[in-house]
C-alpha cells in the first residue's frame, strides 16, 4: 500500500496528465494545480477526474498559479506532499519572445516560490522536488551530444528563465539539503502535445489536409534538428529521479536526431501522402514541398502541402539539439521504450481520427472551426 502524496504543478499539460496517471497507478494520492480559465482546461485529465463527493478520492485539483506566492504556500501547507513535480510553465519558446517578463515570473521565480515555500514550511526533510528543466538550456550548443556537464547557452527568454530555475534548484539542494533534482529533458511529444508545438502542428495539419479540411501547412525553420522522445517514457524518468538515495540532475533524451523536415516526411508517409521537397533550404523562403502522388482523395499531384512562413522564424533560434542519456541509463536503468516511428504513427492516427470525425460533421452541414496557428 502506497501512502505517498504528490503535488503536480502543470497537471493540465501534456506531461502533467501522463504523470498524474502514472502516479495514480502506483497508488499515490495526487494533487494538481490548475489555473482558472474562462473555458474548461482539464481536457487532458478528465479521464482520471474523481468526484470529490465519492469516498476516498485519490486525485484532487486546486486552483493556483505559479505567479502567486501565498496561493502556492497555502496549497503546500495543506497538502504537505512527499513529492513536488514542478511541471507548470509558460512552455512555448516562440511565445516567450512576446511575453518575456511573464515567462521569467512563472518559469523562473515560480520555481523559487515553491522551493522557498518548502523551506518556510519546514518541509525540507520531507518533500522531494522535481524541476522540469530543458534542453533549451544548451541553446547555442557548446558540445555534441549534450550531457549533464555541457555548458549552457540559453537562446530565448524561456530558456533564460529556465536557467534561473535550474540553478535555484541546485542552490536549494546545496544550501538547505532539500532533495531537489533537475531533469534536463529533450523534446518529448505525444497525441496530448499542445497544438502549437511543431510536431503536433504537423500531424494535425496533415491529417486535416488529407481529409480536405485544410489546404496547406505553414512552417518556420524546417531544417531545425531535435531529439524527440515520447512523453510517457519521460514522465517515468521524472518519478525515478525522486526515488534515489541522493538527488542528482539527469539528461533525458533518446540520443537520436531528426529535422523538422524529416518529421513532416514521416507523418506524411503515415497518411500515404508522398512529398517532394522542392526548395533546398530556407533561402528560398517560398514553397518547399509539393505532392508527388495523388494517393488520397483530397491531395493531388502538384498540390502545395507545406510552405514556409517567416512569421514562424524565431529572433534567435536553437538550430540543433542531441542528448546523451548515458547517465540516466547507467544509474537509473532508464531506456526509452517508444520509438520515433511509433510516436509519429500514434500522433498521426489520433489526429486522423479527429479529422475524420470533423470531415463527417462537415459533410452533414455542421460548421466547425479549425485553428491554424
Ligand atoms: P504544457 O505547455 O503542455 O503544460 C504546461 C502546464 O503549465 C499547463 O498545465 C499550464 O496550464 C501550466 N501553466 C502555465 N502557466 C502557469 C502558471 N503561471 N501557473 C501555473 N500553471 C501554469 O507543457 P509540457 O507538459 O510539454 O511540459 C511540462 C514542463 O516541462 C514545462 O515546464 C516545460 O517547460 C518543460 N519541458 C517540456 C519539454 C517538452 O518537450 N514537452 C521538454 C523540456 C522541458 P494550462 O493548461 O492552464 O495552460
Ligand atoms: P521547442 O519546440 O522550441 O524545441 O520547445 P517547438 O516544437 O515549438 O519547435 C521545435 C523546432 O521547430 C521549429 N519550427 C516550428 N516550431 C513551431 N512551434 N511552429 C512552427 O510552425 C515551426 N516551424 C519550425 C522551431 O523553430 C524549433 O526549432 C519545446 C517546448 O516543449 C519547450 O517547453 C521545451 O523546453 C523544449 O521543447 C525542449
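^ C-alpha cells above, recovered residues below v
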Amino acid at each position: 500500500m502506497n501512502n505517498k502524496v504528490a503535488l503536480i504543478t502543470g497537471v493540465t499539460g501534456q506531461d502533467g496528465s501522463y504523470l498524474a496517471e502514472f502516479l495514480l497507478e502506483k497508488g499515490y494520492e495526487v494533487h494538481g494545480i490548475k489555473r482558472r480559465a474562462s473555458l474548461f482546461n482539464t481536457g487532458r485529465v478528465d479521464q482520471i477526474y474523481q468526484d470529490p463527493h465519492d469516498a476516498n478520492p485519490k486525485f484532487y485539483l486546486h486552483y493556483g498559479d505559479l505567479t502567486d506566492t501565498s496561493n502556492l504556500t497555502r496549497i503546500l501547507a495543506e497538502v504537505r506532499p512527499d513529492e513536488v513535480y514542478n511541471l507548470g510553465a509558460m512552455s512555448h519558446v516562440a511565445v516567450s519572445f512576446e511575453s518575456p517578463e511573464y515567462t521569467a515570473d512563472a518559469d523562473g521565480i515560480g520555481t523559487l516560490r515553491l522551493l522557498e515555500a518548502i523551506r518556510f514550511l519546514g518541509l525540507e526533510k520531507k518533500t522531494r522536488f522535481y524541476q522540469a528543466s530543458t534542453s533549451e538550456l544548451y541553446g547555442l550548443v557548446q558540445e555534441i551530444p549534450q550531457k549533464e556537464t555541457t555548458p549552457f547557452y540559453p537562446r530565448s527568454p524561456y530558456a533564460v528563465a529556465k536557467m534561473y530555475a535550474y540553478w535555484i534548484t541546485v542552490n536549494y539542494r546545496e544550501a538547505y539539503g532539500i532533495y531537489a533534482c533537475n531533469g534536463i529533458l529533450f523534446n518529448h511529444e505525444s497525441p496530448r502535445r499542445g497544438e502549437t508545438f511543431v510536431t503536433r502542428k504537423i500531424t494535425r495539419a496533415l491529417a486535416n489536409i488529407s481529409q480536405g479540411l485544410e489546404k496547406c501547412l505553414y512552417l518556420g525553420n524546417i531544417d531545425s534538428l531535435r531529439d524527440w522522445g515520447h512523453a510517457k517514457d519521460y514522465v517515468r524518468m521524472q518519478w525515478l529521479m525522486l526515488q534515489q538515495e541522493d538527488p542528482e540532475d539527469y539528461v533525458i533524451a533518446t540520443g537520436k536526431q531528426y529535422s523538422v523536415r524529416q518529421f513532416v516526411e514521416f507523418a506524411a508517409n503515415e497518411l500515404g501522402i508522398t512529398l517532394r521537397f522542392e526548395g533546398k533550404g530556407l533561402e528560398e523562403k517560398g514553397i518547399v514541398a509539393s505532392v508527388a502522388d495523388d494517393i488520397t482523395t483530397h491531395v493531388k499531384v502538384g498540390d502545395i502541402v507545406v510552405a514556409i512562413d517567416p512569421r514562424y522564424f524565431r529572433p534567435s533560434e536553437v538550430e540543433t539539439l542531441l542528448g546523451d542519456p548515458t547517465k540516466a541509463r547507467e544509474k537509473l536503468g532508464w531506456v526509452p521504450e517508444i520509438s520515433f516511428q511509433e510516436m509519429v504513427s500514434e500522433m498521426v492516427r489520433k489526429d486522423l481520427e479527429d479529422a475524420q470525425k470533423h470531415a463527417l460533421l462537415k459533410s452533414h452541414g455542421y460548421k466547425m472551426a479549425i485553428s491554424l496557428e
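The longest helix spans residues 340-363.
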